[in-house]
Amino acid sequence: MMETLGLLAAGVAGLFGHMKSKDFVGRKLRYTKVAEKSAGGMALLTGAATSIAAAPIVAVLPWVGTGAALLLGLGVGTGVGMGIVRAREG
User: Fold this and answer.
1) 69-89 pLDDT, tens per residue?
2) Which residues have a Cβ under 8 Å from the Cβ of 63 and sit 6 or more positions away?
3) Which one-letter DSSP state was computed for residue 21?
4) Per residue in 9-48, pLDDT tens?
5) Where are the domains of the chain?
6) Distance CA 54, CA 80 (A)
7) Distance spanning both ends of the chain, measured CA to CA
């Protein structure tokens, strides 16, 4: 039961991170130079930074593993990449 709860929490965190970062980047950064740069590099950087920042928090929770931090970073990274593409399109 605890493994299922941890997997569900990781999936929700990844989905939430993706949606919020895509919305933020698409709305707030469309008039900046960030929207003109490579989406892949920025997505990789923000995804890795999010995973590293979430790792100590996730390590304290007994029912969530390190996969939750990785899924959160993956969600934020893909959201940033898609948000940059959306900002370019207008």
Assistant:
1) 888 999 999 998 888 888 887
2) 2, 5, 6, 9
3) H
4) 888 989 999 999 999 888 887 777 766 667 778 888 888 9
5) 2-89
6) 17
7) 45
